[in-house]
């Protein structure tokens, strides 16, 4: 056990990816039996982050990010508002181009539960991985790398006939700029897991509320493009303003 802990401590990012993927991918195929297995699978990134930080002694940093909900209200406003603004803009584009959207959609009970439980992802993505990568890479690059891991973590969902490679690529188009954008907001909020969870949850529900019944391929393409524009603006603004203190050094050995 001591030897394994040493390996994890020397290669925290690699260990994190392996543990997060293994945990989630074990439960994903069982979703057909019960949706509860899918909810458990959401916690793969959290389990990985906790295991690795316990091994390399950085658990206090992760714990502080998990409990650091006292952030300026502006970060919560951005976290909740940007996804709805993006979906609203996509709705305007659709109607301006002759499309029709009737009313507003309702979200199901399971979507409300997932809004909360994506904290299982955010403990890993923005609580662990983004800040580790950020100490080595620029803000945008760290966001893109986090996004790439986030996309690949979802891969088993798309290894089905009804999804396929096209669905996977469309999802990647949507997630990558979203990850960069979330990375900027998360860094501004000192990598608060709670702020990141609000933004992740809002991104999941904004489309079914504002674009009910709209073809998934269309809204992934359009909102993904809008997220890319917003991400560029936020990254440039973050570089200009530098409103927060430097990120504490964190071991980043792969």
Report a brief summary of the structure.
With 254 residues, the protein is mainly alpha-helical. It has twelve helices and no strands. The chain has a domain at 69-241.
Main attributes of the structure:
single chain; 254 residues; mainly alpha; 12 helices; globular
What fraction of residues sit in β-strands?
A: under 5%
The global form is globular
Model regions low in confidence, pLDDT < 50 over at least 5 residues: 247-253
Secondary structural class: mainly alpha
Classify the helix fraction into a percent range: over 70%
Q: Can you give a write-up of this model?
A:
The chain has a domain at 69-241. Helix 8 (119-134) runs antiparallel to helix 9 and helix 10 packs parallel to helix 12 (216-241). The protein has twelve helices and no strands. By secondary structure, it is an all-alpha fold.
Secondary structure blueprint with pairings:
Blueprint: H1 2-10, H2 12-27, H3 35-41, H4 44-56, H5 59-67, H6 73-96, H7 109-117, H8 119-134, H9 139-153, H10 164-188, H11 193-210, H12 216-241
């Amino acid at each position: 056990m001591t030897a394994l802990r040493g390996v994890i401590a020397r290669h925290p990012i690699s260990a994190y990816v392996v543990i997060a993927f293994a945990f989630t991918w074990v439960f994903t195929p069982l979703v057909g039996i019960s949706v509860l297995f899918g909810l458990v699978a959401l916690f793969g990134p959290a389990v990985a982050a906790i295991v690795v930080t316990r091994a390399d002694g950085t658990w206090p940093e992760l714990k502080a990010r998990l409990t650091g909900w006292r952030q300026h209200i502006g970060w919560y406003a951005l976290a909740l508002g940007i996804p709805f603004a993006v979906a609203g803009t996509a709705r305007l584009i659709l109607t301006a181009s002759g499309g029709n959207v009737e009313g507003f959609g309702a979200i199901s009970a399971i979507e409300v539960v997932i809004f909360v439980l994506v904290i299982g992802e955010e403990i890993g993505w923005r609580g662990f991985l983004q800040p580790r990568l950020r100490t080595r890479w620029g803000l945008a690059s760290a966001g893109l790398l986090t996004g790439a891991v986030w996309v690949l973590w979802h891969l088993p969902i798309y290894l089905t006939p009804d999804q396929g490679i096209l669905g996977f690529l469309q999802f990647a188009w949507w997630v990558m700029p979203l990850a960069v954008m979330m990375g900027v907001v998360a860094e501004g909020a000192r990598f608060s897991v709670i702020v990141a969870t609000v933004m992740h949850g809002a991104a999941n529900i904004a489309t079914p509320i504002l674009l009910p019944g709209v073809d998934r391929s269309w809204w992934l393409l359009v909102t993904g493009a809008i997220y890319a524009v917003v991400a560029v603006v936020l990254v440039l603004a973050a570089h200009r303003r530098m409103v927060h203190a430097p990120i504490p050094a964190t071991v980043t050995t792969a």
